[in-house]
């Protein structure tokens, strides 16, 4: 949630933000997407915990695959793709070259 606020406030205050480097925007997008996926997983795990050991979610295995394994796999893929396109080391070099 803080990443959404950060991206919105920086883009609103400083339109130059998007033109510095597209990699910063891509890194923020990577964090936001993976955070959403992990939040979905966490909410389902919370509901599973509240239902107890004889609940509907824990007694049906496909919920574990769909809402536990798939979001974590997608979060890992998002980070792999994000680190490829939004390499933090080249982003730091680009931003340091903009200093007066």
TrEMBL record:
It comes from the Bacteria. It is a multi-pass membrane protein. The chain crosses the membrane at residues 25-44, 64-89. It is found in: Membrane. InterPro entries: RTA1. The keyword NAD does not apply. It holds the Pfam family RTA1. GO terms for cellular component: membrane. The keyword Membrane applies. Keywords: Membrane, Transmembrane, Transmembrane helix. This is RTA1 domain-containing protein.
């Amino acid at each position: 949630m803080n990443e959404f606020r950060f991206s919105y406030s920086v883009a609103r205050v400083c339109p130059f933000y998007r033109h510095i480097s597209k990699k910063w925007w891509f890194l923020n997008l990577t964090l936001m997407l993976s955070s959403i996926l992990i939040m979905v997983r966490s909410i389902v795990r919370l509901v599973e915990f509240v239902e107890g050991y004889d609940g509907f979610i824990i007694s049906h295995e496909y919920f574990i695959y769909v809402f536990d394994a798939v979001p974590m796999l997608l979060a890992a893929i998002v980070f792999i793709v994000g680190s490829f396109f939004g390499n933090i080391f080249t982003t730091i070099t680009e931003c340091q070259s903009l200093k007066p």
